[in-house]
Design goal:
This protein is an alpha+beta fold and about 80 residues long. The relative contact order is 0.08.
Length: about 80
C-alpha cells in the first residue's frame, strides 16, 4: 500500500506561529525530536472525569443503569410567563 505525502514549505511569524493550510481550529501535541524535526499529533482535550468514564467500562455500565432506573425521577417544572 502506497502512502502519498504532501510537501509544503511553511514559515513561522515573529511570534513563532505557523499556518497549517486545511487544518484550522485544531489542537496538536507537539514534540521536538533530537534530529530537529517537529512531530504534530492530533489531540483532544477531555476532563479527568470524562477520561475516567471513557476508560472504565464498569463505570459506564453503572451510570447507564442508574440513568435509566425507574427510581430516578426528574420532575419538570413549567415556567410561568412573566
Amino acid at each position: 500500500m502506497e502512502t502519498e505525502t504532501a510537501t509544503s514549505i511553511v514559515e513561522t511569524d515573529a511570534r513563532s506561529r505557523v499556518v497549517l493550510p486545511g487544518h484550522s481550529n485544531r489542537r496538536y501535541i507537539m514534540e521536538d525530536l533530537p534530529d530537529g524535526a517537529i512531530l504534530l499529533q492530533p489531540a483532544v482535550v477531555v476532563s479527568e472525569a470524562q477520561l475516567e468514564y471513557l476508560s472504565t467500562p464498569e463505570l459506564r455500565d453503572l451510570l447507564s443503569r442508574a440513568a435509566t432506573s425507574k427510581t430516578v425521577a426528574r420532575p419538570r417544572r413549567q415556567r410561568r410567563p412573566e
